[in-house]
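Let's do one together. I've listed all components of the complex below, 228 residues spread over two lines.
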Amino acid sequence: EAQVTQNPRYLITVTGKKLTVTCSQNMNHEYMSWYRQDPGLGLRQIYYSMNVEVTDKGDVPEGYKVSRKEKRNFPLILESPSPNQTSLYFCASSRTMNSNQPQHFGDGTRLSIL
Amino acid sequence: GDSVTQMEGPVTLSEEAFLTINCTYTATGYPSLFWYVQYPGEGLQLLLKATKADDKGSNKGFEATYRKETTSFHLEKGSVQVSDSAVYFCALIQTGGGYNKLIFGAGTRLAVHP
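Okay, and this is what the predicted structure of the assembly comes out as:
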């Protein structure tokens, strides 16, 4: 089954404790992206990757890092989490970033930073 | 910059009522337009799309027409069901110029009662 898998689904942690949210897709997609969803703001792009070793900032990259060492994986790293990063996070992938390609979303990761 | 504006929710309807969720956009060039749906506890799923002016996207009884003259992409359904209760996101994608990005509206929550 084609899917985007995120882990963990839920995490409560404390300020300053490094964490990583993993994202894996099994569709051999080139393009992957991270979004955060906040009430009244919709989804905002954090980082995206056009292919292996090619990443770039989205609209709200501050406080986040990503890497793309393999095509299937695109982890999101919070080196020193802060309470304003409490949010619902989604990973997405598509075959390419061509406008005709649909994006496939994971089920989301709810992070609470205390 | 490019942006998407949706009507604020929640929208509350009785089963079999007619649904309209308004969406307007601001963009340079000729973006592709999308509606995504998010059911409780799940990620976003592509509902329908339109890639050029006057295109009509349709799926599961939902329809939306790409209106370039009014920069709109309103979502409609003739008879809603309880199972349509979800959050609906309008989005556009602008490609080209070496920078590709999916831009979302804030989302509109739909609640359908029996």
